[in-house]
Amino acid sequence: MWRSLVRGLGCLGYLAVLGVIFSIVGYLAFSVFVRGGVTSVPDLKGLEESEGTALLIDQGLRAVTTDDRRFDERVPKGHVLMQDPRAGVYVKRNTQVTLTLSKGPRRIEVPSVLGQAVQAAQVSLAASSLKIGRVYEVLSTEGRRGAVVAQHPVSGERVEIDAPVDLFVAAENNAEIYVMPDLVKRDFEDVRAFFAERGIRLGRVSYETYAGVAPGTVLRQFPLAGHPLRKEDVISLAVVAPEPSAADETAEDRGAAAQEASP
After folding, report:
1. Angle at the Cα of 21 (from 19 to 27), degrees rounded to 5?
2. Does residue 46 contact residue 96 with C-beta atoms inside 8 Å?
3. 120 three-state secondary structure
4. How much is the pLDDT for 4?
5. 169 near 149, Cβ under 8 Å?
6. How far apart are CA 192 and CA 170, in angstroms?
7. pLDDT of 192-219, one tens digit each?
8. Rounded distance, CA 78 to CA 104, Å?
9. What number of CA atoms fall less than 13 Å from residue 226's CA on the CB side?
10. Distance between CA atoms of residues 164 and 116, nearest Å
11. Residue 195: which region, alpha, beta or left (left: phi > 0; alpha: psi -120 to 50)?
């Protein structure tokens, strides 16, 4: 009985070994005779054209690049965007693989925002699918305070979508800021000549009678003395009115006499 059992196990082991040998031989035969002329298409997306072509040649395949290039925000210009057949497909060797290359991100022409305030420049850039980058304040005589006097990239340059545009904004020029002098008790004609020489205009000038003070003397001023003064600011003055002439006094007396004489 034991001999029969041992003999049976030996037969089973022999058959198992034969099965393994036949499996190995079958796989090798399949690889050599059936799959010998078949290969898997590699994944080429994102590779540079020359790299993708070299990889296909290593696999025994041929690369053909189409003229149909397309914009893509993630795949750089000149790199493989699409392939046909797709990656992982088994094909015969010497099969043609068609490559479509990327044109890179779509380029936008930068508009000019010179002379605009920062808020207006932001709207103009957003309308062109761009955004504000860094904002610098610079001393400049080319534009009003707070206006854009330069930009980078410059207008007309082509950039990627959502690219930042740095702005250079005219800052307050301290060289053109004065300290308001004390004008009270000064002669109005001297004051007018002083500001005219510096390109600063006088605004409203009101005349008032003031006993004991010489005509043409400044009584009040705005801005007050010591305040910062810019060329665009308007100065208001109150000045002692000139004394009426003899002819004016005679006319006034006649008018008063006529009113008294009237019934």
Report:
1. 100
2. no
3. helix
4. 60
5. yes
6. 30
7. 999 888 888 888 899 999 988 999 999 9
8. 7
9. 0
10. 17
11. alpha
Strand-pair category, 131-138 with 164-170: parallel
- The H-or-E segment that residue 156 falls in is none
The Cα–Cα gap between 99 and 89 comes to 15
Pairing verdict, β 235-240 and 202-208: parallel
CA–CA dist 107, 157 (Å, integer):
9
Q: Is the pTM of this model over 0.90?
A: no
Q: Any idea which of 55-59, 63-67, 178-182, 197-201 has the lowest mean pLDDT?
A: 197-201
Structure token pair of residue 82 = 């699409």
Residue 120 has phi, psi (to 5 degrees) of -70, -35
According to DSSP, residue 199 is labeled T
Angle in degrees, CA 20, 25, 26, rounded to 5 = 95
Half-sphere exposure of 46 (CA within 13 A, CB side): 4
Tokens matching residue 61 = 């395949």
Q: Which residue has the tokens 């099965």?
A: 19
CB 40 within 8 A of CB 89: yes
Q: What's the mean pLDDT in 224-243?
A: 88
**With 80 as the cut, is the pLDDT of residue 142 above it?**
no
- Indicate the residue type of 143: G
